[in-house]
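2024-03-11 09:14:02 DEBUG pipeline.ingest accepted 1 chain
2024-03-11 09:14:02 DEBUG pipeline.ingest length=86
2024-03-11 09:14:03 DEBUG pipeline.predict start
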Amino acid sequence: MSWIAWLVVGLIAGWLAGVVARGSGYGLLGDIIIGIVGALLGGFLTGQLFGVDYVTGLNLTTIVVAFFGALVLIFILRLLRGGRLA
């Protein structure tokens, strides 16, 4: 994926995860970072669980995988922080 695709997927997935987990996003930069790290985490987890690379480009499957990866990331960060991730 190109870096522009990573930014777009990161922004969409991070914002969606922020809305689901918090009720609002984490701001433009926060959403992008959470979404990109979520895409990496989600891609790794789906690769390990299903043996397939679902993070392949700017498409719905990649956004869904990145979204679930971002939710997992937010959950892990909340566990480590011991409370609500602001």
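2024-03-11 09:14:41 DEBUG pipeline.report Residues 3-81 form one domain.
2024-03-11 09:14:41 DEBUG pipeline.predict end
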